[in-house]
Design goal:
Mean pLDDT: 95
Bound molecules: NADP nicotinamide-adenine-dinucleotide phosphate
Pfam families: F420_oxidored (PF03807), P5CR_dimer (PF14748)
CATH architecture of the largest domain: 3-Layer(aba) Sandwich
Shape: elongated
Keywords: Amino-acid biosynthesis, Cytoplasm, NADP, Oxidoreductase, Proline biosynthesis
Distance between the termini: 39 Å
Function: Catalyzes the reduction of 1-pyrroline-5-carboxylate (PCA) to L-proline.
Structural class: alpha/beta
CATH class of the largest domain: Alpha Beta
Strand content: 5-15%
Pathway: Amino-acid biosynthesis; L-proline biosynthesis; L-proline from L-glutamate 5-semialdehyde: step 1/1
Main location: cytoplasm
Largest sheet: 8 strands, mixed
CATH superfamily of the largest domain: NAD(P)-binding Rossmann-like Domain
């Protein structure tokens, strides 16, 4: 689509953190126009702001659903126009299943995605699921091309794999921030200023990722750890204190709890 001559009218419902990021990222594609509907927003440079969801859906294809789940559940079938065969809805809402999106929007062609926070800088992980049988090949290609602008995309065959992804990459940035915060606190404890501590830790994380990127595709993190860890050395002292096996077990439990919660949320059914 980067070189596509086709004019897509992208719709965005909800212009908060994610809706705005999606607009900013997709604006880079030539030949796209944008319709946006968000509470209290009347003007956005480069987009047409429409007053109602009905008008937004009628004018746009595909339509990104970027409102919060609770905001979505406060809407009903009457807020949306009649079903149109080719209308594509791409939801980024966490924990809202396709069945419920169908019920409220009345549309058939639903794509459920699970992005994460780094989407806002074009470096997200975005898992997506759709019943491919009901889409034209060209439509699937268009969807994939759009998703590429958000970071790394991953198609999942089963809808409930979106819940597993929520537990790993959806919540993932918070896990990474937690680890960084723990290391920053240690640095402060050792006497570095808060600013120095943040710089040391963030550059260590950035540098470590760059190092991983420089490795073969099938890199092995345990081998990389072994490279740093020498017998009776400092890293070994730290890892012994952490207890690596217990650490892995703890993370398995933590992500399982997140997955279970994601599944509970997605299982909610509108009566
Ligand atoms: N943020 C993340 O990192 C992240 C990650 C993965 C998935 N998501 C999903 O992305 C979605 C959006 O999250 P967000 O963080 O961007 O939320 P947000 O900043 O609160 O954005 C939602 C926007 O939608 C507007 N809105 C609410 N009801 C509306 C309606 N009926 N019609 C038109 N506009 C309406 C809100 O306006 P007001 O502010 O005036 O109410 C707000 O501007 C959520 O479903 C979330 O699950 C977010």
């Amino acid at each position: 689509m980067r070189n596509s001559k086709k004019n897509l009218n992208i719709g965005i419902l909800g212009f908060g953190h994610m809706g705005e990021a999606i607009f900013r990222l997709l604006k880079k594609i030539p030949n796209l126009s944008f319709n946006i509907c968000s509470l209290g927003i009347k003007k956005i440079t480069g987009a047409v702001c429409v007053e109602s969801i009905r008008e937004l859906v009628e004018k746009s294809n595909p339509l990104f659903l970027c409102i919060k789940p609770q905001e979505f559940y406060s809407l009903n079938r009457n807020d949306f126009p009649e079903k149109t065969t080719d209308k594509i809805i791409i939801s980024i809402m966490a924990g809202v299943c396709i069945k419920n999106i169908k019920k409220i929007t009345g549309q058939e062609k639903i794509v459920r995605t699970m992005p994460n926070l780094p989407l806002q800088v074009g470096e997200g992980v975005i898992g997506w699921h759709a019943n491919k049988k009901i889409f034209k090949r060209s439509e699937l290609k268009e969807i994939e091309t759009l998703l590429l602008f958000f970071g790394k995309k991953l198609f999942v065959k089963k809808e409930n794999a979106i819940d597993s992804l929520t537990a790993i990459s959806g919540s993932g940035p918070a896990y990474v921030f937690l680890f960084a915060e723990a290391l920053i606190r240690s640095a402060v404890y050792f006497g570095f200023t808060k600013e120095q501590s943040q710089q040391i830790v963030l550059q260590t994380i950035k540098g470590s990722l760059a190092y991983i990127d420089s490795q073969e595709k099938n890199f092995n993190l345990e081998k990389l750890i072994a490279k740093i860890k020498s017998k009776k050395g400092t890293t070994e002292a730290a890892l012994n204190e952490i207890g690596v096996k217990a650490f892995y077990d703890k993370w398995l439990k933590a992500t399982s709890a997140a997955g279970k919660r994601a599944n509970e949320l997605s299982s909610y059914e509108i009566k």
